[in-house]
Write the structure tokens for this entry.
Amino acid sequence: MTQALLHRRTLLAGLGGLALAGCSSETASAGDPRFADSPFRRLTEDQWRARLSGPSFNVLRREATERPFTSPLNDEHRDGTFLCRGCELPLFQSRWKYDSRTGWPSFYDVISRNIGTKTDYRIGVPRTEYHCARCLGHQGHVFDDGPRPTGKRYCNNGVALIFRPA
């Protein structure tokens, strides 16, 4: 991402997080009143860098994608909850996790009130990106090729998550 684009994204996120660079907002959850005063929305880029590892920062704050098959969370099968690494907001229950054979932790359901979505055109075709509703950290993309009962595949970057055992 170019510096100009990064600065534009930072500015737009600071204006409420409803529109991010190169994307259009599709839900109001980024502006969810539950999180409007979240201290995570006021962190500077330097503060985020100090809180997160390099790979987590690149994914959560710059919308990068980690390499497939690199996350230890691919092999996490205990009961528990997957949280946003940026702010520890619960996003997924372990019972919703499945092996999509894509190389990223995948889930067929999400705690929907805790995410926001937008259309991402970064690869030239529209995809639905989802992010944490509290800190606006990028998590991954959702696709319509998942298992029953939802038919959804929330394809998440492992470095954007923390697993908390039950």
About this structure: The domain at 3-165 is CATH 2.170.150.20 (Metal Binding Protein, Guanine Nucleotide Exchange Factor; Chain A). The chain is about 15% helix and 25% strand.
